[in-house]
Specification:
Organism: Colletotrichum lupini
Protein name: C6 zinc finger domain-containing protein
Radius of gyration: 18 Å
Strand content: under 5%
Number of helices: 9
Number of strands: 2
Structural class: mainly alpha
């Protein structure tokens, strides 16, 4: 158990800062594409696999060597890496291990002031794994769209992208709020809000985002005021357009 926790914490620390040079030793695409939903694997094993996949995603999209320069690779290698990354995400979406299904789930209901889904899981490990799946969904969506933003249909594509970012952020926040006593879950959701919070256009949803950030700071002493101020500035800019 301790060795599993140590491994997870080490990978988590490496993923915490996308701006830092990537140091995890990743080789080829074998670990990334590995997906055996019927294998005898517990929650810690799956969380580790997901964090390894996250490491491949981050390195693929933002990768730099120890000197801080972006690595250049053969186009075929890059294509194989992208296929392996997408394959893991697809397999997770279609063949998620049954023990990762929520114990209880309730869709969000904006009309009742419930802007995030309620999602109860068996343990914090599952929550961390599922939050990171959604964080990487955000990263991959933006990376896949970055070269497809011009020309006819670009505006519609941007709207679809923004809804993807909002939906993943809602899930991340819903997982955190349902597990609010766990600081890592709450902080991970704070990261999601800092990445995608400005894309929430609905005033009620914006208030829910601010309320979540206030909860994060109140319950876990995690500073959020600078992010909230930046979000309010971004929201006011969108309102004026």
């Amino acid at each position: 158990m301790l060795s599993k926790l140590s491994s997870m914490l080490n990978r988590r620390r490496q993923l915490d800062s996308l701006a830092s040079p990537f140091r995890l030793p990743l080789y080829g695409t074998e670990d990334c594409s590995l997906f055996e939903p019927d294998s005898v694997a517990d929650d810690f094993d799956w969380a580790n696999r997901i964090l390894v996949w996250c490491a491949y995603v981050v390195k693929f999209c933002f990768g730099a060597n120890s000197e801080g320069t972006v690595e250049t690779e053969d186009p075929k290698i890059r294509a194989d890496q992208w296929k392996a990354i997408e394959a893991f995400q697809h397999n997770w979406d279609t063949h998620q291990p049954p023990h990762f299904k929520p114990l209880a789930y309730q869709e969000r209901n904006p009309e009742m002031g419930e802007y995030f889904p309620t999602v109860w899981h068996a343990n914090d490990c599952q929550v961390l794994a599922l939050q990171h799946i959604e964080l990487m969904r955000i990263v991959l969506a933006v990376h896949g769209a970055k070269n497809k933003r011009l020309g006819i249909g670009a505006q519609a594509a941007n709207q679809v992208l923004e809804e993807t970012l909002r939906e993943s952020t809602r899930k991340i926040c819903g997982l955190a709020i349902s597990n609010r006593k766990d600081q890592p879950s709450m902080v991970t959701a704070g990261v999601g809000v800092s990445l995608c919070g400005e894309y929430f256009r609905d005033e009620g949803e914006q208030k829910a985002v601010v309320s979540f950030m206030d909860m994060l700071e109140t319950m876990h002493a995690w500073p959020t005021s600078s992010v909230v101020d930046a979000l309010r500035t971004a929201w006011s800019t969108h309102t004026k357009v």
